[in-house]
Specification:
The protein contains nine helices and 32 strands. By secondary structure, it is α+β, with helices and mostly antiparallel strands. It has three domains: 110 residues, Immunoglobulins (Immunoglobulin-like), CATH 2.60.40.10; 80 residues, Immunoglobulin-like; 324 residues, Purple Acid Phosphatase, chain A, domain 2 (4-Layer Sandwich). Strand 23 and strand 24 form a beta hairpin. Helix 3 runs parallel beside helix 4.
């Protein structure tokens, strides 16, 4: 119990800025506090009416038109007094400063505030702090999630007047919209209520895709590193700048949804509060695309260590429920809840879904992560997942089968010895599973590069476990596509001879699915086509 209490009460890292907001007379006061001396703090802010051009459906990235700057002051505590506030309006703000001890520029994520006038006095009003963001897309439904600054009731209102609610009074809301029609777009608003305040958002829009003609984007490793120079590429353990750019490009490329293949955040922390900060920063960075475009997420090793309990250096393990990394994952991501039973829960981190002719299978090679020196007990498909995946692949007879997990089956080079090759028998078992069911493609990340590998059964000819599990006399090759260019520091050049195409730029993939073909295209952030390959059909 002592270890668990300690685990819950650690300090946030020096680079995390979490502002406090209060209302005084006719001003909003935003304060920040640090254990280190800060210099030149600056708050940037704008009202929503200054940013939007009309009241219809539109996507915009917040721009900050005003600022307050302490140019020549160093301290551990600062207050910013913002005046000329319009009651009822939502304001966006972000704070930057320089940590003198570390010599680093640091930044908060974006925040929002709103004031309301009651009985002649101002007080803090209801605002959506995170979201809304979309997930768990199906052919007839979608899930809308958001977080408010105050406990509230929430509902989603479609433009046709239909109202959906989760029936809770909480800060976090997750509402399932069902009975929708594929190939149609829907406008929606969020309405939140407390006893004293009501907030209704501007309109957003989503589309239920044509199940026989759609695209999705795929990328991974959006976590941050101090090796990157810009503050926007390392906010609270997330490369927020690259993540947002890829999400927006995915939307502009007409993707129906995004799949992010793990290592969303920095992770490797004992502090549950820091876990909250990182995931909320990731969700903020995904805006504004996530108002319009749903996302599915895959667990990586950095996510599986958020949180962890450290025994000593190099020895740590996943906390038991309800504080396991899997529990936190389930809280933040509205993925399908159709995985196998288990503790920690597989809910939301092992799942499948289908759209038209395609089955999507998401597995967790870092489930219940445990490390003891050189012994790593994850980086594999455990028996529960193996048997569940085998059953799903056998029972769902669809022409296209896409499989996603974080660590590559065959690493390109930079993570040799820390991908599935760490446990050769488990790797060979996973390969047999994929060959047995004739998958269309395997998508991985972990290595912060793009690498295309044509996986052939001959690679595993000498493996006894592979030979014992393979159920067909002849099996077809498939592509392994490592799409790890989502923002983490770039990987080294390839070393594996089987790699057919390699690129270490920030990048993302677009997969186009029709009833007769599947094609994969890789783009860098400048929009240049880096690679293109037919995964099926493509006459």
């Amino acid at each position: 119990m002592t270890a668990l209490i300690f685990f819950l009460t650690l300090k946030l890292p020096f680079y995390v800025i979490e502002p406090q907001i209060r209302v005084e007379d006719s001003a909003v006061v935003v304060s920040i506090k640090s254990d280190h001396l800060l210099k030149m703090p600056n708050i940037y802010y704008s009202g929503e009416s200054e940013l939007t051009q009309n009241t219809g459906v539109e996507m915009f990235e917040p721009r900050y038109l005003h600022n307050i700057w302490y140019r020549d002051t160093s301290d551990t505590f600062f207050e910013f007094r913002i005046k000329n506030i319009k009651p009822g309006e939502v304001y966006y703000f972000q704070i930057e400063a320089t940590d003198i001890e570390k010599g680093k520029e640091i930044s908060s994520r974006g925040y929002r505030f709103r004031v309301v006038e009651r009985n002649g006095k101002w007080q803090q009003g209801l605002v959506i702090d995170i979201g809304p963001y979309l997930g768990n897309l199906s052919e007839d439904g979608i899930t809308v999630s958001w977080k408010t600054n105050l406990p509230s009731k929430g509902e989603v209102i479609l433009s046709n007047g239909k109202v959906y609610t989760d029936g809770t009074f909480s800060k976090w809301h997750r509402v399932r919209l069902s009975g929708l029609s594929y190939g149609r777009s829907y406008d929606y608003r969020i309405r939140c209520k407390t006893k004293e305040d009501t907030l209704e958002t501007r309109p957003y829009r989503f589309r239920i895709p044509d199940p026989y003609n759609f695209k999705f984007s795929v990328f991974g490793d959006t976590r941050a590193s101090w090796k990157t120079p810009g503050t926007g590429e390392r906010i609270n353990g997330v490369n927020t700048e690259v993540l947002r750019r890829i999400a927006l490009e995915s939307f502009r490329d007409s993707a129906a949804f995004m799949v992010v293949i793990g290592d969303l955040i920095r992770g490797y922390t004992e502090d549950t509060n820091f876990v909250r900060v990182m995931y909320e920063t990731w969700l903020w960075a995904l805006e504004p695309a996530s108002h319009f475009l749903p996302v599915f997420t895959v667990v990586g090793n950095h996510d599986a260590s958020a949180p962890m309990i450290r025994v000593k250096k190099g020895v740590y393990y996943d906390p038991p429920p309800p504080l396991s990394a899997e529990n936190f994952w389930e809280k933040y991501f509205p993925n399908p809840d159709n995985g196998p039973e288990g503790q920690p829960p597989y809910r939301g981190n092992v799942y499948s879904f289908r759209i038209g002719p395609a089955l999507f299978l998401v597995l967790n090679t870092d489930y219940n992560q445990r490390v003891s020196g050189d012994s790593v007990y994850s980086v594999r498909l455990d028996r529960t997942q193996f048997e569940w995946a085998d059953s799903i692949l056998a029972s769902v007879r669809l022409p296209y089968r896409f499989v996603f997990w974080h660590e590559p089956l065959l690493p390109s080079g930079s993570h040799e010895g820390s991908a599935l090759d760490l446990h050769p028998e488990a790797r060979d078992s996973a390969a047999a599973l994929l060959f047995n069911h004739g998958i269309t493609a395997l998508f991985n990340a972990h290595e912060h590069v793009y690498a295309r590998v044509r996986v052939k059964p001959g690679f595993f000819r000498s493996s006894k476990i592979f030979q014992s599990l393979i159920r067909k006399a002849e099996v077809s090759d498939f592509y392994q596509l490592i799409c790890g260019g989502g923002g983490a520091p770039s990987g080294v050049e390839k070393t594996a001879q089987y790699v057919e195409k390699f690129n270490n730029e920030y990048s993302y993939g677009i997969v186009k699915v029709t009833d007769s073909a599947v094609k994969f295209t890789l783009f860098n952030l400048a929009g240049w086509k880096i690679d293109e390959v037919c995964l099926s059909g493509c006459n």
